[in-house]
Amino acid sequence: MQRGQSTDGSLAIKGPPQRANKGSIEAFLSQSKALRERVARQKRLLFAMDATASREPTWAVACTLHDAMFDAIVGEEHLAVQLCYYRGIADFYCSGWLSHPQVLRDTMAQVRCLAGGTQISRVLRQALSIASDKNPIRAVVFIGDAVEEAAAHLESLAGQCRLQRVPLFIFQEGHDPIAQRCFKRLASLSGGAYARFDHTSPNRLRDLLNAVARYVSGGRQALTQASGESDKLLLKQLPGNPQCPD
């Protein structure tokens, strides 16, 4: 027995602390096991963005287009997204694994563009650090408009992504020729695909993101069955296509 003080100031006798019964413990362990098994089965996508100042004019539009992909890719419980972005002076953010569209939207809504250099190498290193046979990443989506890093280093990382079976789907905003050459090379080396969009073709980005969502969920077969223009564009570049240099 334990002594304590009651509300009126007198001493009260307390009984021994109640213990959880065996049934509640077993139920908790069962739920925990089910959660671990579900997480282990989830297919994963790394969604990365350049949030430097050059993208600020079209940032709001791009964010609304991402919603369609979030809806498509996390509509099933076995899919999860890790959201990454870089901005400012060495500001690099990665979320946990998210499985609810509204959480992804809320996270995106808090992002503000800041002036700074590109950090694409950190995106690729992040993908490599979390890729594993037990919890593979189905793809990396990267949206950006510039490259300010050594191309040779980025290409080496893209080759490592290929070895880890992590294709890069790189969607370029704008017309920068240096970025275009580099992005195409990185996508090809990784076994992924490249496409370009701008402020005059926002629906193109939406369609591309939805095509990637289908690929993550169902692989090449899902793209073949969908047969939209964006699906065909990705299929044409993915390894295994007769027209695609492997």
Present the secondary structure layout:
Layout: E1 2-5, E2 11-14, H1 22-41, E3 43-50, H2 56-73, E4 79-87, E5 91-98, H3 101-109, H4 120-130, E6 137-144, H5 151-163, E7 168-173, H6 177-190, E8 193-197, H7 202-226, H8 229-237
Parallel strand pairs: 3-4, 3-6, 6-7, 7-8
Antiparallel strand pairs: 1-2, 4-5
Helix pairs in contact: 2-3, 2-7, 4-5, 5-6, 7-8
Tell me what you see in this structure.
- The protein is an alpha/beta fold and about 250 residues long.
- About 50% of the residues lie in helices and about 20% in strands.
- The chain has one domain: Rossmann fold (3-Layer(aba) Sandwich).
- The chain has 8 helices and 8 strands, in the order ββαβαββααβαβαβαα.
- Strands 5-4-3-6-7-8 form a 6-stranded mixed sheet, sandwiched between helices. It has a two-stranded antiparallel ribbon with strand order 1-2.
In short:
With 246 residues, the protein is α/β, with parallel strands linked by helices. It has 8 helices and 8 strands, in the order E-E-H-E-H-E-E-H-H-E-H-E-H-E-H-H. The C terminus is likely disordered.
Q: What attributes does this structure have?
A:
246 residues, alpha/beta, Rossmann fold, two-stranded antiparallel sheet, 8 helices, 8 strands, 48% helix, globular, disordered C terminus
Radius of gyration over alpha carbons?
23 Å
| CATH architecture field | 3-Layer(aba) Sandwich
- CATH evolutionary superfamily: von Willebrand factor, type A domain
- C-alpha end-to-end distance: 75 Å
Low-pLDDT residue spans: 4-8, 28-39, 242-246
